[in-house]
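User: Can you write out an input/output pair for a complex, sequences first and structure second?

Assistant: Here is one pair. Inputs:
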Amino acid sequence: MTVFIIRRLMQSILVILVMTVLVFAGVYAIGNPVEILISQDATEAERAAAIARLGLDRSLPEQYLAFLGNLVRGDLGTSFVFGEPALQLVLQRFPATMELAICAMILAIFMGVPLGLYAGLKPESIAGRTIMTGSIFGFSLPNFWQGLMLIMLFAVILQWLPAGGRGERGEFLGIESSFFSWDGISHLILPAINLALFKTSLVIRLTRASVRETINLDYVKFARAKGLRPRRVIGLHVLKNIMIPLVTIIGLEFGSVIAFAVVTETVFAWPGMGKLIIDSIFQLDRPVIVAYLIVIVCLFITINLIVDILYAILDPRVRLSDQKA
Amino acid sequence: MWKSLSAATLAAGMVLGTVAHAEDITIAVASEVTAMDPHYHNTGNNNQIVGLIYDRLLHQDSNQQLGPGLAVEWGPIADDVWEFQLREGVTFHDGSAFTAEDVVFSYERVPNVPNSPSSFATYTAGIAEIIVVDDHTIQFRTNGPYPLLPIDLSTIQIISSENPEATTEEFNAGPASIGTGPYRFVSYTPGESIVLEANPDYWGGAPQFDTVTYRPISSDAARVAALLAGDVDVISGVPTSDIETLEGNEDIVLSQGVSNRVIYLHIDSRRVYSPFVTDNDGNQIFNPFQDVRVRRAISMAIDRETIVEEVMEGIAIPAGQVLPEGFFGVSDNIEVPEYDPEGARELLAEAGYPDGFRLTIHGPNDRYINDEQIAQAIAQMLTRVGIQTEVETMPRSVYFGRATGDENGSEFSLMLVGWGSGTGEASSPLRALLHTRDDDTGLGRTNRGRYSSAAFDATLQLALNTVDDDLRQELLARATEIAMREIGLIPTHFQVNTWATRAGLRYLPRTDEYTRPTNVVIE
């Protein structure tokens, strides 16, 4: 297990290095952020001064080496736009995105698994068919449009929920979060649903397919023949076995919900990392883009690690140290 | 030429329709501020908000006309010395008194803000020396005649000298955000909100709203939805496509006002070869835009009325020069060029292009109202007179760098751009866009087409050194006439901005495009 984790960490460092090279070269190729940042009235001398201040007068390899030097000391650079440490900017917005992602994943799991299970056990029933048709909608509706429709219906027409933004934070056990105040929760509901719909559909379809596959296997038939109650057959034998693909997907999807909540965060003006990264890309704020991607890569690596460890717990046949990664 | 205004006119001008109302207001704007430090980044987004916490020596009103701010009287006492009388009895939000020391401190801080992506140093660069005569009298010695000094000083916020080491972080966190303005800093949560509260001791009278909350909502549709849902009271940047629906909604009040922003085409008119011009078979040809007849033909081929009516849905004003009428330095003798495709074809034939040529027009697709559609419309109009025109648009992060290009000029041949006159008068676009490019003086820095005319340069230079207002206005108008006659650039329209408020409120439009609670009227 230790060997496995160490090898994973080495790979991760390599991934981060390759990623930073790509981002550096990519942003460099797009253009010069000073053109967007600087006031239209500025003189040529001021423009040159701004370029020098941001370190953009040096060659690309020089800039990259300087970045690596700082990285070793844990400094990811200072935002071109905000003038604050890039990592701090990203982490400042991390809690907002996490709230949204956790809420969306919980919704997806608690709606998706039971519905998928039902559709898998009773595939020919009207309810089962309806669930499957509904999941196609969840897949195919464009996120942006779907978000606006939710706002139109629940915020503009019914006026039940706010149209966007993050609400007040409550405090509980020293942790500040939207979960602990009604205003905070009311602001969370719509964006979380918007983010969850696609994932719910995915979980439904995956659960259904796994259930259909498992239900005909010998050990399930045997359990039934033994006279076990259906509740125990499904709850223990079926559910535990379909958990392996589900955990993989949920793990990966959790990462992608955090990293790519961009559309939802934009539509609902949610002050998370997704909105920061989009603004930073528009303004070519390279330090923030790099810091964000490093955070996301680390996050994916951690999630994958947890998923692998969960495998071992769920499936006794898996031994992590044996895997050639 | 001393200016002075009675206290009554002043109060009326500053705080519009002050009513004793205890109200809160939430304003949604399209872009986030980058810092609460008033000297950190010179952008309209930041200025519209920090300008509520701080005052300037002189204030620009809704039409960018200068009026007294922290200075009550001002004027030149010699060709290169200006004297300002400061307002007495003004206190900062922390209770300390405002004196000339604060002005000196603010101007000295401006060029030295660490990490500033775009400083205000342009506006203090012309000051050679600041002389404090007494606590409420200050003189500026300038490098030569400097008629724009009052305007330039109206862009710089005056901060307190009590905290000389204040960093940008301390302004963002709050402790350093201490001004003399109508609202006080309460909180700044990046990406989420900025909250301000009324300063009851404001020298211009207590403001009408108790608290003001700014929220950045970048998506147009989401901003409109937030207003419809009642989450916010005022929004800026209403998309033209939503205006018709909102007009029919009696819970919403729309207000529109022309901005100081002209949308225009820059034409690559100096180089021998232009990168995106070829003959009809795709072979390189000499740059046809060197010939003023070809430039004029392009201007004549553009149907400005159609652009305004169809593309902008009526929400714009056709343009024949760089600022709309009513602004300082605008010429009364310039008409909006008439749409004349026949005449354009004849001019092209006369210039030696009876069969036209091939061209690509470039434009941004996320910067100005309907920018991409405008570029497409123009391309169709040019194709109709025989210039086979293709369109290429790109995000602003890529576009502006390429449009500016390097010392060899722009990467483009014909490009769609806009210019908002921060000074509210004609010298801003004239010196940046049309003067021969000169890196030493900064003149013509944004002259992407490299238009160059000795007559124009001389007239503008004369204007820039003329302190007398009437004469300067006349000279600026003359300079504009020269550049428009020689088609130094092709203006298409002036942008009109639209604000929407909930019923019961009305927004008084500003030409500088700012969205401020001081322009909201309670009805």
